[in-house]
Amino acid sequence: MTDQALHSKAFNQAIAEDLLIGSHCLVCGNISIPQRQICPNCHSDQVERIQTKGLGTLAAFTVIYVPPTNMADAGYNAKNPYCVGIVSLEEGPRISAQIVGLDLSDPASIKIGMPLKQTSVMRGEGEAAKKFLAFEPA
Amino acid sequence: MAKKLSRGVAVVGVGMSKFGVFPDKTSRDLFVEAFQELRQSVQKGFDPKDIEAFYMGNFTSDHFENQAHLAPIVASWVGISPVASTRIEDACASGGVALRQGVLAIASGEVDMVLVGGLEKMTDLPGAKVTDALALAADSLFEIPAGFTFPGFYAAMATAYIDQYKADPDALLRVGVKNHQNGALNDKAQFNQTIRDVMIGKQRKAEQKGLPVPQWEDEMAFLKDSKSNPMIAWPLRLFDCSPVSDGAAAVLLVSEELAEKFTDEPIFVVGSGQASDGALAERSSLSEVPAASKASKRAYEMAGLTPDDIDFAEVHDCFTIAEIMATEDLGFFPRGEGWKAAIDGRTARDGSHPINTSGGLKSKGHPVGASGVGQVVEVWKQLHGLAGERQLRGNLKYALTHNVGGTGQTCVVHIFEKRN
């Protein structure tokens, strides 16, 4: 049976299974990604979990040279920067995610609007390794 | 339509510590400095025993100083116990929200005199821990796992803005140059030197050490050099970011009818607005801060004013792009024009819309909980002709402050009026 959980941890639990979920309001049709228990458009609690196609376009991005601890621990630094972006999903909402598979030597070559598809990145080693949402050029 | 305040509220005194790096001082020491300066600023004096409430903006003394429940401690250190003392936490908007709570408390009629404070002591932690502490203001489930930092968020907004309006990225650097020019004239500023001063300082240092002296054509060339101005989060460089700072600021509010007991020159809070928003990715637009537009709309409506009425503003330039977006969100320039205004000098002291005459967060410093209160100190100085070399010319009547928490999850705007 498909998991229908809508609580706040459900999104990242789904990412562990390579699923990008959201919610669909049965009253007004609004889609929220990440999922919401209460529709932010009409405030109904008649919402169901949906699975997105994991397709979208790049809406905004940066290449980070000074990483926070969680990313430094994953091996990123000024000489090994990473790209993080905001992706406009085909379903409408946007989501934050690491963007992989890009040439980071020239960030100006990264184009807003470029098509992306869902993937994942592993960060951490051994038992501490954990899967995170990511996107790559489609 | 925003309602008017139930009764008028006046600012009758302000004070601030110097903003900067103070290894020997805690946040309470810095607030004592701000409070002492505030006492001096109240023209006819006041008795601290008459303070009836204390609202104190502070983001996270828990992490920066290993100290929670800070408001009653600070109240005790300025000698105002047992006054009702409350810490307000809305990330970098904590100070502005504390001000709003003070305004609303007086407007409610429950109290007549309120002390508003803002303070943050950030520099005891190593840099990486400061970054992590600031990141607590982001969404820990959906933004931090993506790898975002605060420079990263604003950098992403910058890419969206530049792409949408085909903006010249030089506009970002211009904001920094301008704010440092203003901060160079503010003895309370953490970096009270121009970018040119910084550049010449680097050359002198190299000379003294007998190293090859780096050459730059001008300060823009200095800012575009990755050695002198390293990339933090593309396209934002070091000099696009406000610094890590220690500092405190204080404002004394009284009910309008009591104002002349304390000063012949009160300034009145005529507009106050606050709005919230979800995580950055959830917003309708990434090239603006919707909560800032909404908060300012309420403040303008309450004041019965339009953006054209505002003589000058202190805005939340935590990053250079933030100032450009703010000048549009607040209605000073149409959408997509803010970057041009920055390049054309329209936001300079002699421009049509002077922004951040204090030096802004960028040059004055950004002790996060203090920033929203520190903005009122500049408003007070400019409206009273006390801003020294950076004093704006002409008859100043209306000023605006704009304080943002996180990437715009909180925004609070105030409008002040000088009547005589």
Notes on the structure:
The complex is a heterodimer of chains A (138) and B (420). Chain A contains 2 helices and 8 strands. Chain A has helices at 10-15, 69-72; strands at residues 21-25, 31-32, 47-51, 55-64, 82-89, 94-99, 115-123, 130-137. In chain A, strand 7 (115-123) and strand 8 (130-137) form a beta hairpin. The two termini of chain A are 30 Å apart. The model of chain A has no long low-confidence stretch (mean pLDDT 95). Chain B is α/β, with parallel strands linked by helices and 420 residues long. Helix content of chain B is 37%, strand content 17%. Chain B contains 15 helices and 11 strands. In chain B, a hairpin with a 4-residue loop joins strand 10 (398-405) and strand 11. The longest helix of chain B is centred in the middle third of the chain and has 16 residues, at 150-165. Chain B starts with 8 loop residues before the first strand and ends with a strand. Classes of the chains: A mainly beta (138), B alpha/beta (420). Chains A and B meet through strand 4, helix 2, strand 5 and strand 6 of A and helix 5, helix 6 and strand 5 of B.
List the helices and strands and how they pair.
The complex is a heterodimer of chains A (138) and B (420).
Chain A: H1 10-15, E1 21-25, E2 31-32, E3 47-51, E4 55-64, H2 69-72, E5 82-89, E6 94-99, E7 115-123, E8 130-137
Parallel strand pairs in A: 6-8
Antiparallel strand pairs in A: 1-2, 1-3, 4-5, 4-7, 5-6, 7-8
Chain B: E1 9-16, H1 27-41, E2 53-57, H2 61-64, H3 70-77, E3 84-88, H4 94-107, E4 113-121, H5 127-135, H6 150-165, H7 170-183, H8 195-208, H9 219-223, E5 231-234, E6 236-237, E7 246-255, H10 259-262, E8 267-276, H11 290-303, E9 312-314, H12 320-329, H13 338-344, H14 360-364, H15 368-383, E10 398-405, E11 410-418
Parallel strand pairs in B: 2-3, 2-4, 9-10
Antiparallel strand pairs in B: 1-7, 1-8, 4-7, 5-6, 8-11, 10-11
